[in-house]
Design a protein that fits this description.
Blueprint: H1 2-11, H2 28-44, H3 46-55, H4 59-62, H5 67-79, H6 93-144, H7 151-165, H8 172-176, H9 188-199, E1 205-209, H10 216-227, E2 241-245, E3 262-265, H11 274-277, E4 283-286, H12 288-291, E5 296-300, H13 307-319, E6 321-322, H14 338-346, E7 348-349, E8 353-358, H15 367-370, E9 373-377, H16 383-397, E10 400-401, H17 405-410, H18 416-432, E11 458-459, H19 461-470, E12 486-487, E13 489-496, E14 499-511, E15 519-521, H20 527-544, E16 551-557, H21 569-581, E17 584-585, E18 589-591, E19 594-595, E20 601-602, H22 607-616, E21 621-625, E22 640-644, H23 647-654, H24 661-665
Parallel strand pairs: 1-8, 1-9, 2-5, 5-8, 10-11, 13-18, 15-16, 18-21, 21-22
Antiparallel strand pairs: 3-4, 6-7, 12-17, 13-14, 14-16, 19-20
Helix pairs in contact: 1-2, 1-6, 2-3, 2-5, 2-6, 5-6, 9-10, 16-18, 18-19, 20-21
């Protein structure tokens, strides 16, 4: 078996030069030792064998005529140990040769495997090198000469190029949008407060409340531009104004996409950029909070945002950074780019001033977010404000307005934006009216025109009415006040959102059998209004001595609106007393306030907004609870405002003549 192994080993090295060290008078042992040396020489090479023998102190032993010493030399060489000794005895040679044969066979087999692996590695390296070279060549070719377009790609490109050639003039809203803070009408106090809070070296986060179309977004943008020029302003010249809409922002519980705060695209499912995906590196994508770094993040309709997203935004405001997390991120991976590592370990910078705007009540905003923001209320626009806005817009459009046009538009809306839209629609109708043009002027199809190119454009009332009919507009507020006093009819005040309005309340009484009278009240007004009726009935008996149950009473809220709260109590009481006593109520007076059983006029909410509703209805005198006097400036909107403590004090301004309640009791 040993001879067969030696033969097999020798056959693996056929064709190579044989170096044989043989003693004279060879025996069987000598031939076996010589064969082993031949195999070692074939495997290692004669030069390397001599060097190895020198290192192992086996060179002299290898050249010895004594087979035992040659075996010792071979053992030192194969085992790479120069300290092996003593020289084996002749009787031990067969066993030593067998051991050396097995050792040599293991070494040769291992080397064959290593050679195969090295060959495969070299082949793989060569293949990868060729692929790399091929990619580099293709990249160079692409840079030097772009790939030829397919017919489909060329068609798409040509279509886009044709679209680029079409240029419309700026939109009407863009043309008429205020360019300076002075052009914002009706919001002087709000704009002043907004500027004061942003012009400080320590600007505050803000929430702007108010009805739509009054200039909240425009004011925020213009205030930022104005404070950039201040020396102590923290805003740089290029501070960004990033605008988004809270109705479009949704919280993704999987954190796969978040345009507001930023998200991470993993390399498998979401498709990070190619250079990252190929190496399995996730790609963090900063959001709008990072885009707004150093400037303002304006979120319109912030009250529509998801509560969870509001909480997440609150965390960013506190940290002034947006952090990213991903199960695919490995901080020890050397393939991770430095900027990716910075974003994962330090987060993305997000130091900005938040300005949120909403048309909803403050209760729709996260209380924790509100506590970190200053709050500014934008005021509803009066008809006078709408008239001024329309006239300013007409001057920018360079059109003539027929007398009363601005006043007519103010009847259809309380929003500045809507008023501009009505004017723009009417302007378009005026352009189509041939009678508005000079005889020599005709439009040419495909030609762009500036305002100066279009002569003699005049907007008339029939254009406004046509716009109103087509758009199904109706008069927002009809003038309800009058100088004629009336029995059993009074104007109360209500508020919805940030818009106040008048509420018409009327009462009528009929004599009934003593103690068997009935009270009828429209249920749609709500339970709180119904309670106010019963309170008013008790106060009526207290101040006049007359029992409401001696009459059949019908109280009505005209229009059937729901009265959410007790603020109509004083108005209902006044209507009842007027109906019972026959005393007339002034129709240019509006009243608000809860009535207590003691006849006290208690404070209510929304007095500031209610004043706007009164002004729009043509009211001249406003009666409010004494405790609400601090909530509204004196002579606000030109109204005659009286703050009263009791119902009897209120009656002095409500009735057109003084009531003697002593006589009434008698």
């Amino acid at each position: 078996m040993f001879k067969k192994l030696i033969g097999a080993i020798k056959r693996t090295f056929t064709g190579k030069k044989q170096i044989v060290i043989q003693p004279r008078n060879e025996t069987e042992i000598d031939r076996e030792i010589s064969a082993l040396y031949e195999i070692v020489i074939d495997a290692m090479g004669s030069d390397r064998l001599v060097l190895q023998a020198g290192k192992m102190d086996a060179l002299r032993l290898m050249r010895s005529a004594n087979p035992c010493e040659r075996v010792l030399a071979l053992r030192r060489i194969l085992e790479e140990n120069p300290t092996i000794s003593p020289v084996p005895k002749e009787s031990e040679l067969p066993a030593e040769i067998a051991k050396l044969s097995e050792l040599l066979a293991d070494i040769i087999a291992r080397r064959q495997v290593e050679d195969k692996i090295d060959k495969k590695v070299n082949e793989k390296l060569e293949h990868d090198h060729q692929e790399y070279v091929k990619d580099i060549r293709l990249q160079i070719l692409k840079e030097e000469k772009p790939a030829d377009e397919t017919p489909h790609d060329a068609k798409k490109r040509e279509e886009i190029e044709r679209m680029e050639e079409v240029k419309l003039t700026q939109s009407v809203m863009e043309l008429l949008r205020p360019k300076t803070l002075d052009e914002i009408v009706g919001q002087e106090r709000a704009v002043k407060s907004l500027r004061a809070k942003l012009a400080s070296p320590y600007p505050q986060h803000l929430i702007l409340y108010g009805p739509p179309g009054v200039g909240k977004t425009t004011a925020a943008r213009l205030v930022l531009e104005s404070v950039k020029n201040l020396e102590y302003s923290p805003f740089e010249k290029d501070a960004p104004f990033i605008e988004t809409d809270g109705t479009t922002l949704r919280w993704d519980p999987r954190d796969m996409t978040n345009p507001l705060l930023g998200s991470v695209h993993d390399p498998i499912y979401q498709g990070a950029q190619k250079s990252l995906a190929e190496s399995g590196v996730p790609e963090p994508k900063p959001g709008l909070v990072t885009d707004a770094h150093g400037g303002i993040l304006f979120i319109d309709e912030i009250g529509e945002m998801d509560t969870m997203l509001q909480n997440k935004l609150l965390k960013v405001l506190e940290d002034k950074r947006a952090y990213f997390e991903s199960a695919y991120y490995d901080p020890t991976d050397e393939r991770v780019p430095k900027y990716v590592k910075m974003l994962f370990e330090n987060g993305a910078p997000a130091d900005f001033v938040l300005i949120g705007a909403t048309t909803r009540d403050a209760s729709s905003i996260n209380p924790a977010l509100r506590s970190r923001c200053a709050e500014i209320y934008f005021e509803p626009l009066t008809p006078a404000h709408i008239i001024e806005i329309v006239k300013n817009a007409a001057a920018k459009l360079e059109v003539d307005l027929e007398d009363g046009i601005a006043e007519t538009i103010s009847e259809y809306t309380i929003e500045g934006r809507k008023a501009i839209n009505i004017l723009a629609d009417a302007y378009s109708l005026a352009l189509e009216d041939d009678t508005e043009y000079d005889d020599d002027f005709k439009f040419e199809v495909g030609k762009s025109y500036n305002l100066a190119d279009i002569p003699n454009v005049k907007i008339r009332k029939n254009h406004i009415y046509e716009v109103a009919q087509v758009s199904r507009l109706f008069q927002y507020v009809t003038k309800k006040a009058s100088s004629q006093s009336t029995v059993g009819h009074i104007f109360g005040l209500g508020v919805s959102g940030f818009i106040g309005s008048v509420i018409e309340i009327e009462a009528v009484v009929f004599p009934a059998e003593k103690g068997k009278g009935t009270i009828r009240f429209n249920e749609t007004a709500g339970s709180m209004a119904k309670d106010s009726v019963f309170n008013a009935a008790s106060v009526l008996r207290k101040v006049t001595g007359k029992d409401i149950h001696d009459f059949d009473v019908h109280i009505n809220v005209i229009g059937g609106g729901n009265i959410d709260g007790p603020s109509a109590g004083t108005a209902i009481l006044s209507a009842l007393i007027s109906a019972v006593t026959g005393k007339k109520i002034r129709q240019d007076v509006a009243v608000t306030g809860e009535i207590s059983l003691q006849g006290k006029v208690r404070p209510v909410g929304g007095v500031f907004e209610k004043a706007y509703g009164a002004k729009q209805a043509g009211i001249k005198v406003l009666v409010i609870p004494k405790e609400n006097a601090k909530d509204i400036p004196p002579n606000h909107l030109g109204l005659e405002i009286h703050a009263v403590e009791t119902a009897e004090d209120a009656f002095k301004y409500i009735f057109d003549e003084e009531i003697n309640f002593t006589d009434e009791k008698v």
